[in-house]
Write the structure tokens for this entry.
Amino acid sequence: MVKRPISKSKFVIAFALTFVIFIIGILLGVFISELRASNLESLIEDQNLDLDSFQLQYSYISDTVEKENDCIVVYQSLEENVVVLNDAADKLNKFISESNNDFRGYASLRRNYILSQLRYWLLTEKFKNICELDVVSVLYFFSNSECYNCDTQGFVLDNLKHDLGDRFLVFAIEGDFAEEPMVNIVKSSYYVDKFPTLIINNEKFDKFMDRDVLLKEICSVYKNKPDVCENG
Amino acid sequence: MIDLKIIFIWGVSFIYMYIVIFWLIVLFDKGIKPKKEKLKSFPLVTIAIPAYNEEKTIEKTLKSALGLDYPKDKMEIIVVNDGSKDNTRNIVLNFIKKHKDYNIILINQKNSGKGSAMNNALSRSKGEFFISLDSDSFIKKNALRVMLPKFEDKKVASVLPLMKVYNPRNFIERIQWVEYLINVFYKLILTSLNCIHVTPGPFPIYRTEILRKIGGYDEKNLTEDMEICLRLQKHNYKIVQSMDTTVYTISPDTFGKLYKQRNRWYKGTLLNLYRYKWLIGNRNYGDFGVFQMPTVLISGFLTVVAFSFVFYNFIISPLLRKIYDLYSVDFNLIVDFSNVNKLTFLGLNYTNMFFALVSFILVVLILFLAYKYTKEKIFSRHFLAIPLYVILYSGIIAIMWIGVYFDLIFRRMQKW
């Protein structure tokens, strides 16, 4: 029996080259993850500064008698900040999904964002009371895993934010982020056990809500209803 | 945790890249350039033309055979009319009458397939070399002069010409035009490893003695050209791709015809792989056993799996998700447009993009080399075929393979 040759060296070289290409690709991914993390860190530093400023503004307003004008100014910038924060959170989620791996820097960033969202939410609730603001804030619990409707729920909330503008605030909380005790505290206080769950005016809705259903619930909270509540 | 989708994409990419890089290493290794030898004598050759309902092309095929730059008295042409229901028989008879100075024989048999027709011709053949010429193919006149010298190596059992699509007009034919160039280039690489696994119908030259020794054609085989090649490989003969001459073949011009052709080819491939399964991974057969046979085995399967994965994950699933999202907001598109502003360069998946870029560069390189070695110009009237091929080919082939798997599962088999 003739034994035909095997191009062992060529097989090995081909494997080595392919392997090197893959290592370069993976290292590129890690490098980009580092860039993403530093980009997000700088964003969060700005957010934390803004938050400190709002806490100071809140203290100031709660002690003043002529609140009305101050409330309007402070609320406008609070609303803008929440929008920026939500955009940053979207960015973070996008980065996580595009990272191919659970990059080590993202866990602390996620935690930071969740805390910022909760702080802003608490602050907003206080502002609403002091300034008697006719705005609706929604606490939205989502999950990045095993939640088919969460992406669509986020899409619906974005859609309503577009229509309701500064009278509608969304605070999105990654509900299965177990590393942050505050998440568990808020979840247990509202008995949140599945996703998506929305808290609107202290009432819990633990199922997916499309635009029409959600708009109806939100509109019922307003004292002075926006146009979109009338027109649908 | 890296998810399974990513492992799958990376795994498939790794296998594809590995195979292509291996080819390139073989290509750039010494000795890939085909030597140009001169024909020292003119042995008798038999050109066998099996024909079934080929009234439209048979005369042109016969003319191209007569047009070969080779002594008339050293050529024997055997047309096997395989029970044609059209006018093929009369056209051949008229042709013989008009060309009495040539040795043209017509054999009529009841329809029993190409393998049977070829064996019929083989049994009557007097030539030292036996050539199968499909009746929808046309050969360049220098073919015998440049192909026969390759038989100086006594282990060479078969020599193949460069095969190109004849006058491609629509996009189905144009995609095949590119595919054939790449296939020929691929066979050139495989020649240096002695790994060719199919000797396609249009004008492969065989050493008659060897063809008879191994038992002729398998008459019941769907792809007798692959089966005979595997049998030659089994007996450790060499099969060589020549780049110095061209055979033009008419390719299917509709999706339906292409599907029918490929269904037979791929089904035949799987059945032959099963028949010769002991060759797969067999170290005694060198590169053919450990590389080529496993590559042929997985290529169809990988194409289907990769295509289905990409199609579902990157087209169907996002599309359904978008429709569902829009349905949930009463098809209000405003947010979608505003979301464009949120895209950032950092949000892209650079690892996957890098792999896609490397794969694209490899595809372009293979295309460039295929065109170079087959002496075709990239910027020709068929240029548009290249992007069509890059974008559509895998999808088309995957659909063909899916059909084959369904047929095999439900035991739907065709005759040749």
User: Anything to note?
Assistant: Chain B has a mean pLDDT of 89. Chain B touches chain A through 48 residues (CB under 8 Å). The two ends of chain B are 50 Å apart (CA to CA).
